[in-house]
User: What shape does this take?
Amino acid sequence: CIREDLVNATLRGTVRYPHLFIGGEWVAPEGGGMLDSIDPATGRPWASVAYGGRRDIDKAVAAARAALDGPWGRMPGHERAALLYRLADIYQKRAPELTLLEARDSGRALRETRGDIGAHANWYRWFASLADKIWGRTIPMDDSVHIYTSRLPVGVVGAITPWNAPMLTTSWKLGPALATGCTVVLKPAEQTPVTALELAKMIEEAGFPPGVVNVVPGYGKDGAGEHLVAHPDVDKIAFTGEGATAKAILKTGADTLKRFSFELGGKAPHIIFGDADVEQALNAATSSAWAVCGQSCALGSRVLVERPVYDRVVEVFAERAAKVRVGMPLDEATHMGPQSSDEQLRKTLSYVDLGQAEGAQLVTGGRRITSGALADGYFVQPTVFAGVSNQMRIAREEIFGPVASLIPFDGEEEAVAIANDTAYGLTAGLWSRDLGRAHRVAAKIRAGIVWVNTYRYIRWTTPYGGFKASGWGRENGVEALDSYLETRTTVVST
Ligand code: NAD
Assistant: This one.
């Protein structure tokens, strides 16, 4: 059910998006120009997309402020909910097209992208269901005062998203922002701008008032991203991306003391105890190692394995890595597409060299694929390192490639110590048939989400976010609303 003309246009590489979406209108950029979106499977441009600069961000922020001061700011929660439900329906209908476009833009395999995008409407519906339940409290004191709190939208939100999961990270921000009554300027990553502009068409079709959502693709440093962060009339930045970028954003935004929420990197421990259902654990651990070509913050990139089952785990990882079908993203048979950019490919390959230099054993993979139809794209083999120590840089730094590091351990205490010996704290997994151990270990792990006998279970209802260098705040669940709201306390003398 994908529009044939769109499929053909994407395959010819003739897709053009010449406009930004500002104040409910499609406008040519004033401060930017046109950028090429590169197809990571071929290394060639496939779409030409408008990008904005300072002047466009100024216009978008002004439109978002005007919307906040206009009908949107006075709209009751149930009406915002109705718009969000309508958006969810449109999104669901258009999911096949979005899937195709995101697979082209990011290089993620079609079958994987379909599962991801196919679920996003649930996020919009979840936040729609919360939009009319944003309540304050009454606080009892004594007869002389009446105290109550009100929860108000934080204001204009600058949403800055990464290239690895463009529509997922967008729905996690747009949903709570719109449910709480904020307005948004969305700046997608320069590598993957297309689907955000398609989303703007859906916002328009759903009937959101002009200026409630504005979409301005652009660059980060010295570009639309930095202008958005520095802008004095932006109340909050909701960011997903790298820790180094978050630090730069904090510095740029410091003068305006705006609010920030950050979803950053991870180096998740995926712990397999000897008493686990090892086959099930292996299914989860191996598929998580290659998912999104290793380009997801949630993946279990450090596989901690209890020594009695270590050799078996290494063997199965090697077998399965060799069976991963690496191929063109739009081929239905493909399990794993290319890395999203040349830069990311080089980064992954440099860590493969580093791992060997550090003394880890390269069990399989580690090379760029240079043959046949994949030769020009950014394809890399699924890679397994054994004999990894947690002190090695391949175990400490986020590689963002399909590279699994298998680390042996002895007993619960060592597993917990290794799991927590990291700058990050986003996700973790553990496998054990001993329920007491599972709860005991889960309680000691410093991470925003701990999966027990499952992995990567993420839903709209489940709070998601990081401890330590993995971020500030939570997305999803009811907790997601908190960072989009201010609390006003009213104290009335009676
Ligand atoms: P990135 O930090 O390079 O870029 C993210 C966004 O920030 C892009 O839109 C970019 O244009 C913008 N940007 C860059 N510099 C900026 C600046 N100085 N000011 C304002 N904006 C700027 O990240 P990436 O490489 O696109 O994404 C990969 C990273 O995202 C990984 O570290 C990954 O772990 C993380 N990630 C985290 C989660 C999560 O939920 N925790 C989810 C997905 C990705």
User: Anything to note?
Assistant: The longest strand covers residues 145-153. The chain has 16 helices and 21 strands. The longest helix spans residues 77-106. Residues 160-165, 169, 187, 189-190, 219-221, 225-226, 229, 240-242, 245, 248-249, 263-266, 297, 398, 400, 426, 466, 471 surround nicotinamide-adenine-dinucleotide (CB under 6 Å).
